[in-house]
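User: Can you help me understand a structure? I only have the sequence.
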Amino acid sequence: MSCKPINSASVAVASSRLAQLPKPMQKKIGSFTLSAIWLTLFAYAEPQTNSKTIVNGTDWKDIQGNLIAAHEGELSRFNGVFYWYGSSYANNPKGLFRMTAGPVWNGVQVYSSTDLKNWTYKGVCMPRPEKGFGKLGATGRSHVIYNKKTKKYVMWYRWFVAMPASFLCVATADHPEGPFTPHGPREMGTSNGFASDMNVFQDDDGKAYVIYCDHSKPEEGGGWRYGIRIDSLSDDYLTSNRDGVLIFDKDCEAPAMEKYKGKYIAVASGVHGWAGSNTKCATADSPLGKYKRQADISEKKTWSSQVTDLIYLKESDTVMALCDQWWTPDKKDINKSRYLFLPLFLDSQTGKVKMEYREKWNPLSLQK
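Assistant: Let's start by predicting it. Here is the structure, written out as tokens:
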């Protein structure tokens, strides 16, 4: 049983009243009375929520008491510490992002935690540039991996200008909290080199990959594609090898991938803007496929959210999804949007993946 600390003020009042009694009576009932007070206070103490329990469907605040602002983000883990990278829409309640909106981007935010529950705000690890690429337009979906050979933390992120001009860019740092130095756009494995929503994945052998949205119009004509592709990265993680392996043919964005029980899992949302979307899924035996598509793995439009990242947690042998609950609870301020941490399960017999909603759970000690 976990209880709140005993109210010291109540104990002090009881002790004071006992002291006002005649001394013979104090000696007679003193020890019994104080013992009874302690037992009563303990018995009626209110249960306290486990400090490591995630409570979905609520506002999440950092240890300073401020709302966490790391939207369309990613969770990384370095040297036992979790880092949450994402975007803040402070002073931009409507979520304006096109170049005509001006310099609205607030830089890449980063938080740290050792238990996924208690987060410390570490500041802006890559600020918006005062000039050049990234000053205007939407920069976000920042994802970080560590390169052991170069000893650099490598960030891939999206810089959206206007359709179809959306670039994937690279930055590096000597520490996961930054500061990250931008190195400019990279050409991807699409027909025109552009790409939008993206994520990165680092395999057990040290090789890395980027999974991204190809929104270009098909060469044979038609509307915007919004397919999902995977490219392998160079040994230093700074350049795409432009493999362009197609996972989802159309109508997808916000991709992520992870390895679990020998399978490579790729997920993505539908194309619904800042709104909930069921999560699409495909699996493969190698990072570049061939991928096998399966039915949507979530319910209720991923419980009114959009998937943005996957991370494997060795303590509970679980894959956890990070999701954005856009415009919840405030329809007038996107920066107040909430998040969900949700577990993914893989049936080793059928190869089927399923996402599950849990209102309260501890991702590091999941009871399956």
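Now, to help you interpret it: Residues 7 and 165 are 61 Å apart (CA to CA). The longest strand covers residues 152-162. Let me know which part you'd like to focus on.
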